[in-house]
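Hey everyone, long-time lurker, first post.

I ran two proteins through the pipeline my lab uses and got sequence/structure pairs for each. Pasting them in order. The first:
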Amino acid sequence: MDLKVVLVACGALLLSVGCNKEEKASGGAVGATTGAATAAGGGSDDPAAYYKMKCAVCHGDSGAGDGPGGSALTPKPRNFTEAAWHGTVKDEDIKKAIVEGGAAVGKSAAMPGNPDLRGKPALADALVKHLRGMKK
């Protein structure tokens, strides 16, 4: 078997570890269902809990782009701690990437959208603020 196929399969397996029971039962992908932040121990409107449940698997707990699910991805997940990046991107573009996925803003299609946030603009805005707070 080709090494690239093995790495992609391993990455998919790592991503599936982050899925909660609702996602597995519905056949949804990571980032595609509601209730995940609650399963992570925080309220559904808690941006830190939502980030931990949906984003940290690839972007890492501190946002450095070093999560276990991102290790097999090319390009690597965004490092939210890089101050230079923060100066080049608008909040609305970050929000669009979070809600609609990377491809919606011309970035990697490996970044899944979170359609459950379409009806929760305050939480999406809070996630943008949470990411901005990771800047070093």
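...and the second, right after it:
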Amino acid sequence: MGWNNTPNAERVHIGIFGKRNAGKSSLLNALTGQDLAVVSDVPGTTTDPVSKAMEILPLGPVLFLDTPGLDDAGPLGEKRVQKSRQVLNRTDLALLVVDARTGMTQEDQEILERMQRKESPCIAVWNKTDLLPKGEEIALPALPCPVIAVSAKTGYHIRELRELLPQVVRVPDEKFQIVADLLNPSDFAVLVVPIDKAAPKGRLILPQQQAIRDILEADATAVVCKEYELRSTLEQLGEKPKIVITDSQVFAKVSADTPKDVLLTSFSILMARHKGILRPSVQGVTALDTLRDGDRVLIAEGCTHHRQCDDIGTVKLPRWIRNYTGVTPEFDFVSGIEFPDDLSPYRLIVHCGGCTLNEREMRYRYACAADAGVPITNYGILIAYLQGILARSVAAFPAVSMLLEKPGKEKP
């Protein structure tokens, strides 16, 4: 897969933050070598985050995110500031852009402290050095992060800044694979992909594409079928597959048609593992058994899409939860980068697989839930739990499946 086709969720996210008119958009244009963002001397020109995918070696595929000024004012300005803070939640490396003429202000210091609280690797970029009086020495402060003087306008030290990026960003040495580590060369993996009115026209959804690619990377064979073709597909294979991976919405049928000695899981569960949040998701799902009438449940999706009449997030999940628990909770819904700052009103959070969100964003959301003492799980794990097949669905991951060995952890 070329870097141009790398999903945004798998890229290193580099956020550009700072006060209005500090030169954030100019810096984005200079770093990418393209006129992507509108540049103006008028403060507040950038009203929404601007993104650009590219490759920087040795980091590989990255996604630059230019944000509105964090000192924006007024009701509309506060909404822009909130969007910028949400971008920080999914940033692997933050660039704090400071106007070299004014130096570090109180607002800049507050921005830096927020980055430190979120443990975001950061570089302070002293921009607009070309506007300093001729001959004036550039005084760089001592900060708890690297500091570099640049000029986005003239290109001064832009190359050096690019070279500094991979030295500061923290990329995990080893990430959870999606499914390749469960397979040996020549193994069969069967993927069950329903094609209904909710399926995207002419393409597979991202987790399905990623799973197929991961299977091929393992030198195994991916066999794709619809849910009502699974039984005949297994008969025609001639040998049992190593694993069956299914869309969560047809978990029950696929479980019934899959031999008990064949591993079974869902795309959603694989994505939770890939993002490093499988354990808390399995732990959190048991909160279903203590829900009461009127309890608030948050259902969160990472992507935004046109809602169908029987949408899984807003229609099916609430219906299934009410049927399983016998109570009537209240449901709130968020999508995209929107995620509540205050999670304390909720008794349970149910999140999608997060295929469009990067690992940092998903870990941030799970950490927020943990800080608020609110159990959190994801679509696939919740559906498997409702249907009494969660233990089987995570059997491929012994360190997690052992969480279900205690009595009462899953209803038959």
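Reply from user beta_strand_b:
Welcome! Quick read of the second one: The two ends are 42 Å apart (CA to CA). The longest helix spans residues 74-89.
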